[in-house]
UniProtKB/TrEMBL annotation:
Top-level taxon in the UniProt lineage: Bacteria
Catalytic reactions of this protein: (6S)-5,6,7,8-tetrahydrofolate + NADP(+) = 7,8-dihydrofolate + NADPH + H(+); 7,8-dihydromonapterin + NADPH + H(+) = 5,6,7,8-tetrahydromonapterin + NADP(+)
Pfam families: adh_short_C2
Entry-linked Gene3D superfamilies: NAD(P)-binding Rossmann-like Domain
GO molecular function terms listed in the Swiss-Prot or TrEMBL record: dihydrofolate reductase activity
Coiled coil: none
EC code(s) of this entry: 1.5.1.3, 1.5.1.50
Alphabetical keyword list: NADP, One-carbon metabolism, Oxidoreductase
Protein name: Dihydromonapterin reductase
Species classification: Bacteria, Pseudomonadati, Pseudomonadota, Gammaproteobacteria, Alteromonadales
Family of this protein: Belongs to the short-chain dehydrogenases/reductases (SDR) family. FolM subfamily.
Function per UniProt: Catalyzes the reduction of dihydromonapterin to tetrahydromonapterin. Also has lower activity with dihydrofolate.
PROSITE patterns for this protein: ADH_SHORT
GO BP field: one-carbon metabolic process
Amino acid sequence: MAAPILITGGAQRIGLALAKHFISADIPLIVTYRTRHNSVDELEANGVTCIQVDFNEPDAIAQLVEKITEHTNALRAVIHNASSWDCEKLNPDHNALFDNMMRIHAKVPYLLNMALAPLLQASNEVSDIVHITDYVAEKGSPKHIAYAASKAALDNLSRSFAAKYAPNIKVNSVSPSLIIFNEHDDEAYKAKTLQKSLMGIEPGCQEVIASIELLLNSNYITGRTLAVDGGRHLK
């Protein structure tokens, strides 16, 4: 049986779309989630191993690794998708905000990459770590300062781990800007956001899926960041 792919934060939005994509390809999956949505029931019905984890808990990483090793002795890939879109305006406790952003976007992937390396190296093929970062890691964001800094840290981890784990594990980042709108986004916000990229569209999750498939299928790409931003850096 093929080694499974682990997706953190796989019960919503891009993570859920990724999970459904791999299900359709008959690839075994392990998915983590923080809050149990109806999508978790759907994933479990399709044979996905779903593990509840709150990365704010002190023993979360150790417990997660233990549960993963109970299910498999090898991993094909780890896709770090778990994320928190928090900002200074909505969180006046800037000390806690910064720590939380760095924990979920940098410390958790760092510790998981360290702990899960033996499972990735046990795969029958070259394995992968993929960090889902963000366009703002390159540009910064005055409204999401801590968030942007933490995503930049995650992007940097890709290069360090690529050098550490080569040639058995490839490590890369996918850096999206707008992929899909939220349900509550109004038309004025959508129009303003679409103007920020050259392509001017809401591309959908398939763009991130295709980018990750490119990295998984490559035998040569490692330590790189694949931008999925519609040319936004040129505006």
